Amino acid sequence: MQLRPSLVCAIGGVALLSACSSVDNSGTAIAYGGNPLTYSSSVNSAVGGAVPTTAFGKSLKAEYIAYAQREADEWYDFFDADFFAKKAGKVAENETILPEDPANWRFDAEEVAQKRAVRDELIALLDDGKREAKPDTAAIAQARFDCWIEESEEGWQTELISQCWKDFEAAMAELKAEEPKEAMAPAPVAAAPRLFTIFFDFDSTAITPVSERVLDAAAQQWASSMSNVTVVGHADASGSSAYNLGLSERRASSALSELTKRGIKGDMVDSEAVGESDLLIPTPDGVREPRNRRVTISID
């Protein structure tokens, strides 16, 4: 939730609410906060406003409108509903609207640093041509990132926070995926191993629906090459080293079981567990980091 009017403003009544709800969120895509009294006009203005001229803009506008309507209709959060409706309106004006800056939301310094690293990675992909190459996926990635930021700040809808993150990760994986290129007289050199990564919820070995799709892709890759497979389990730094080693081993075992179900021969798979010794995102000891809770699958 964006910065809110103070209690004094709320007591002041309807006449003051509109004035008090506008805040200066310098550095954000939109330099004002949401106002529950203007939600209806904001969303109607966005829906009936100009149509963006780019495919990415059209998709992003639709994502923000849908999120604003869900905030209002399902959770009665008209502050944030109005905020994202106005953000959709800015997209319709063909402005370059960036993902939310965590520093403008209520996070401590450590959380801001962690979330900004994620934001920087997303912006780097968008600026590297992914808005044009994969407009729908890029729009989903930005909208789900903003959803993750907003819901994480509120902190009570844990399932929604997790779903926003999973959707964001899936979109990011698609943005990072290399497009197949037409082979032209390839030189006789060994192909680089293909790496697939699946992620886990906190203290969990359960395979998520997003990970199911990654495992399907890994099995298809193996079927086309019949190469050796290496499965490595990881954990974040939130528990003891000994516990995390065991947890990473169970995650590797869970991934291996799913791969064998998909036809990969067990005698062609090497499996190992490294616990918290090889963090994808370096963090202090005891810090929960979703991207460190993973299993990597390398196919030669």
UniProtKB/TrEMBL annotation:
InterPro entries associated with the record: Bact_OuterMem_StrucFunc, OMP_bac, OmpA-like, OmpA-like_sf
GO CC terms: cell outer membrane
Record-annotated membrane-spanning stretches: none
Gene3D superfamilies: OmpA-like domain (3.30.1330.60)
SUPFAM superfamilies found in the cross-reference section: OmpA-like
Domain of life where this protein originates: Bacteria
Subcellular location, principal: membrane
Every OmpA-like domain range: 187-300
Keyword Membrane attributed: yes
Alphabetical UniProt keywords: Cell outer membrane, Membrane
Subcellular location: Cell outer membrane
Record protein name field: Cell envelope biogenesis protein OmpA
Originating organism: Thalassospira alkalitolerans
